[in-house]
Amino acid sequence: MTSFLSAFFSGTAQGAIYALVSLGLVLVWRGAGIVNFAQMGQAMFTTYIASQLIQNDYSYWSAFLIALISGAALGALVDLGLMRPLTSRKNSQLLTSQSMRTTIPVIASLGILGVLKALAGIFWAGEERGFPSPVAPNAIKIGETNLAITGFDLFVIGTVFLTLVLTTIFFTKTGMGLAMRASALNPEVTRLSGIKVGWVRTLGWAISGIASSLAGLLVTPKTNLSPNTLDLLLIIGFTAAVVGGLSSLAGSVLGGFILGYVISFVNVYSAPENVFIAILVFLLLALFFRPQGILGSKQVRSV
Amino acid sequence: MSKVKTHKVIGLRSTRLSIVLFLFFILLSNQFEPYNQSQLANIAMLLIAVLSITLLTGASGQISLGQGAIMAVGGYSSALLVTRLGLSMWLSFILAIFISALFGLFLGLAAARLSGPYLAGTTLVMALAIPSIAVRFETFFSGDVGISVDYGMPPKWLTNLIGEVSIEEWSLYVVLPFTAVALFAVLNLSNTRTGRTWRAVRDNEVAASLAGINIARTKVIVFVCASGLAGLAGALYGFRGLVAPSVYPTDLSLTLLTAAVIGGLRSIGGAIFGTFVIVFLPDLIEKVTGKLAIPETIGIYLPALTIGVLLLLTVILNPRGAAGALEHIRHKKKH
């Protein structure tokens, strides 16, 4: 029973982080039709910035805030500097073919990932380092008995919950959020109603940058920080997004939590080596039986 | 749009090209010291894998970030066939092609339903998961330690014929015939009916299906061919000494894709160029950083940085790669 509870709680905390990653992926996918494989590279970079600031005696929370802001800036920069010119260019011969229009941005995002990893290695020597958390990772005690949940897990779940509430309010109550949803549904009509679709897209990239930066800050106290640590998170986040539905924000969050439980229970009841295989099997099952995802809308292709 | 070339004798030009490249490699290897000979052998192996991307992405528009994992399938197949069943190295290479092609068939059946980013993500997950299978089933695949295999010593008749042959040179001689055949096959394929079918699917799926092309079947066939090539490359790559998960990391898949993009996704000459770049560029950078006294901690990241920047510049400025740029210049001169 205790192992079940601890698997459940650590699954919830991990799932919360995966939900952030997958939310970030889906935000960009809905806005720009691009899966950003550099996303966790960007998060790795901003987490290094936070780590550097903490080493220079900044407080945890100011470093936290600066990391989120630089995450937004980096996301916007990737869109403005690379993706927007790339997708708006029509004269290139290669981009006239249908399949290449989706393939080229994927390759570009891999290029960014490579550059960011190399830069992190150059700036911060690339060796693994720890990353602090504001809450001690000890199990919470009531009286004498240890509960199956740690203070850090609670902190993660709380932070992500707050973020999700804020995101929901943003997308349902604010004009900017509604504009983003509109331009994801139908860019042409949105443009005609006077909304600058290009800038709305850039905003999507920025918010995605914040979400993934936050995921980086929340996951590194447990995994440590190195240029490659967050790669796995991208894979899991992608699987979560596909399971939940790449076109659905709520689905991406749901997918994140599902993946969190799957991975946590495989870890506890099976063996850690099985995690990768479990992810692959889960992804393939999802693609075979429900390619549009749990909450995704149908109509995936036009043929 | 790409011009449709008609060759009366379809195999002639490609035969010539393959033989020329074959001889070029051998002549080049005579000028080199052993280290560069082994680098040349690396190029010959990796070229086969890059060609698989030229087929997959360049000719048919599907993207795979998991070619390294398929190389691992080929590598493990041939290594297990040699060590467990005692087959000859040559036979194991040929069988590795078929085993990986079979694997590609299953992959293709899944991939035919996917497009663009879905396919990229799925193959990336595969690139991570497949090497971990070797760790999971340790008794069969030898886990992280891996299986030691090598090309063996050069045979007597060869040393009698051309004198002393270094081990590095021998590895090149083993690999080159396979590279030449692969090159020949890919060169021919792009000019056949099959190759045109693939290009049609790449450029416009709706139009292709209206023209009577079975899209799903075409995609599966492309995956089978590309996986066979990648598996062969992986088998040859493993026989440099070790078949282990660390030999086929995720980065390998990305490096191969980079080579194909830098050279030009749609050009076989580009694939050759790109493979040279990714193999020799790190050495070149190391030489330069040694002269400029750049500290080693920075120096080890410079190749990755340069290759990443090259990839980005290619995608932004010249998505058709080096081969596309060359064609552009030639085109301008004519007018």
Summarize the structure in words.
The complex is a heterodimer of chains A (303) and B (335). Chain A is mainly alpha-helical and 303 residues long. Chain A has a single domain (2-133, 144-289), classed as ABC transporter involved in vitamin B12 uptake, BtuC, CATH 1.10.3470. Helices cover 73% and strands 3% of the residues of chain A. Chain A has a two-stranded antiparallel ribbon with strand order 1-2. The termini of chain A are far apart. Chain B is an all-alpha fold and 335 residues long. Chain B has one domain. In chain B, helix 2 (34-59) packs antiparallel against helix 11 (215-238) and helix 13 crosses helix 16 (321-334). The chains are: A mainly alpha (303), B mainly alpha (335). Chains A and B meet through helix 3, helix 4, helix 9 and helix 11 of A and helix 5, helix 9, helix 10, helix 12 and helix 15 of B. Chain B: Pfam families: BPD_transp_2. Chain B: Its main location: membrane. Chain B: Keywords: Cell membrane, Membrane, Transmembrane, Transmembrane helix. Chain B: It is found in: Cell membrane.
Brief sketch in words of this structure:
With 303 residues, chain A is mainly α. Chain A contains 11 helices and 2 strands.
What structural keywords apply?
heterodimer; A: 303 residues; mainly alpha; ABC transporter involved in vitamin B12 uptake, BtuC; two-stranded antiparallel ribbon; 2 strands; 73% helix; B: 335 residues; two-stranded antiparallel sheet; 1% strand; globular; disordered N terminus; LivM-like (chain B)
Element layout with pairings:
The complex is a heterodimer of chains A (about 300) and B (about 325).
Chain A: H1 2-32, H2 39-55, H3 60-88, H4 98-124, E1 139-142, E2 145-150, H5 151-173, H6 175-185, H7 187-192, H8 197-223, H9 231-244, H10 249-269, H11 274-289
Antiparallel strand pairs in A: 1-2
Helix pairs in contact in A: 1-5, 1-8, 1-9, 1-10, 2-3, 2-4, 2-8, 3-4, 3-8, 5-6, 6-8, 9-10, 9-11, 10-11
Chain B: H1 10-31, H2 34-59, H3 67-85, H4 89-111, H5 116-136, H6 138-141, E1 147-148, H7 156-162, H8 167-189, H9 193-203, H10 205-210, H11 215-238, E2 242-243, H12 250-263, H13 268-292, H14 296-299, H15 302-317, H16 321-334
Antiparallel strand pairs in B: 1-2
Helix pairs in contact in B: 1-8, 2-8, 2-11, 2-12, 2-13, 3-4, 3-5, 3-11, 4-11, 12-13, 12-16, 13-15, 13-16
